[in-house]
Amino acid sequence: MEKPTRYIPALSFKWLTPLYDPLLKWVMREETFKSKLIQQANIQPRMKVLDLGCGTGTLTLMLKRAHPTAEVTGMDGDSQVLDIARDKSRGTSIQWDEGLASSLAYPDSVFDRVVTSLVIHHLVTDDKRRAFKEIYRVLKPNGELHILDFGAPHSSLTRFMTTYMRRLEEVVDNFDGKIPLFVTEAGFSEVKEAQHFVTVFGPLSMLRAVKGD
Ligand SMILES: C[S@@+](CC[C@H](N)C(=O)[O-])C[C@H]1O[C@@H](n2cnc3c(N)ncnc32)[C@H](O)[C@@H]1O
Prior knowledge:
Layout: H1 20-26, H2 30-41, E1 48-52, H3 58-66, E2 71-76, H4 79-88, E3 95-98, E4 111-117, H5 125-138, E5 139-150, H6 156-165, H7 172-175, H8 179-185, E6 189-199, E7 202-210
Parallel strand pairs: 1-2, 1-4, 2-3, 4-5
Antiparallel strand pairs: 5-7, 6-7
Helix pairs in contact: 2-3, 5-8
Bound molecules: S-adenosylmethionine (SAM).
The site of S-adenosylmethionine has 24 residues, from helix 3.
């Protein structure tokens, strides 16, 4: 698998990866946001669900626990995080795949839901666009995409909070509110920000989009 020209691991540097789970748990209240994303995804029995950029697999595991009959796949471009995910998920039937968001190794129309959490802001603009086209391709008709990631600020305080994070070039599309536009361009309909939150790192947004039939 050929890595894109710029690949950003979970905490930007591979040597920080072991700190990812404690940081998300204690500083970012990840369970709160991830539970809301699972609720929003409205997963039905035996659905096929892809967690794109699953990292250490926390959301993937939460999904499987909440929906034991769902066929859950966690996919990430970094073998180091996938090793942690496999370790955390012993005894479950989750499938773990190494792959890139911009060229998914799945056939057309296979998933009922694609969820993705805190991944899109890691991708350069062209890869964001390619990833949404790929997600559209692998979703079944009427399948849904649910995104949790940084989004446009909703107040002057959150706008101010984004000033520091804007140094990370890839997140600027998120703060500029471009993610819903890229999702629409990829062919999705009913693209909507369902909820938004404020975290210490900036404003988070939950988007829902549908692949029309
Ligand atoms: C901040 S972590 C989020 C992990 C997990 N989804 C979560 O919410 O905790 C971002 C993840 O995206 C993955 N990633 C970055 N670029 C990627 C790409 N082009 N294709 C697939 N995964 C990618 C990284 O390896 C990392 O695990």
